Amino acid sequence: MNRLDIFNELSELINLAINSCSDVAHPNSWMERRQHKDYDLWCIQEGQIEIRIQDEVFLASEGDLILFTPQIAYTATTLSDGCKFIFTHFELSLGDHLRILDNFQLSGIIRRTLVEQELQLFLDTYHQYKHNVPMSGIRLKACFTMLIAKIIEQYGLNQYRGQFMQDSTNQKLSMDFVKLQPVFDFIHEHLHQPIRVEEIADVAGMSEKYFIYYFKQSIGLTPGRYIYQLKMNRARELLYLKRYSIQQIASMLGYPDPYSFSKAFKKYYKVPPSKFVW
């Protein structure tokens, strides 16, 4: 399992909230020293911006995006005749994990060519949002979600790596996530069987109690909820195929009998599996 697969597997538990979205223009004398409390994405509309992080200097030009994470303390200044950009303060959480993006090296300057279509959709929708077009707020969130998803996709394809220096906390979060990779692989390989938390704690080399704590801190979900989510995702896919009976699906997902499976399915989807696909 690729680490980024978690965004697909747990997409229903991911929440993206836009805290503010606006545009601003600065003269060539502008300078800002800051560390954001949430994630921040700038879309450069005019001019150039110099970003200094510790001893490193980065340059963003018209068309580029700049993604800041809460761990990044920076100094931004304008070059030449000033600058103009759209900024979006946002939060992206997975379950109880409010900083799931910190597990990936995403903070940096993103060239427009990597996200061309998604960025254009966002810019077009932002223009509507700025002029109070009905329903544009919902469309703005949808287009912004697509833009962030594209950045993550390009990261997964090794087409992009954030250049901004990560502090020790961010690096630790990334390592915590990597250490769970054998656990993810084990769960995927044994999804057709009953999986006990004790088993996967052994895979991680931890006590059961500490493993539950560690897993939830890293993922935002308990191990049991994660396994349950994967089984329900798989159940939905198998039902849509219309090739298997409920008894067969129950067996394929490690449930002891159709009743146990139907009970778990109804708890999640609010309807029994027999009525899920018409």
Any overview of this molecule?
It contains ten helices and seven strands. The chain is an alpha+beta fold and 278 residues long. It folds into two domains: 5-169, Jelly Rolls, CATH 2.60.120; 180-275, Homeodomain-like (Arc Repressor Mutant, subunit A), CATH 1.10.10.60. Strands 1, 2, 3, 4, 5, 6 and 7 form a seven-stranded antiparallel sheet that branches. A hairpin with a 2-residue loop joins strand 3 (39-53) and strand 4. Helix 9 packs across helix 10. The longest helix is centred in the middle third of the chain and has 21 residues, at 136-156. The model has no long low-confidence stretch (mean pLDDT 91). Keywords: DNA-binding, Transcription, Transcription regulation. It comes from Metabacillus malikii. This is AraC-like DNA-binding protein.
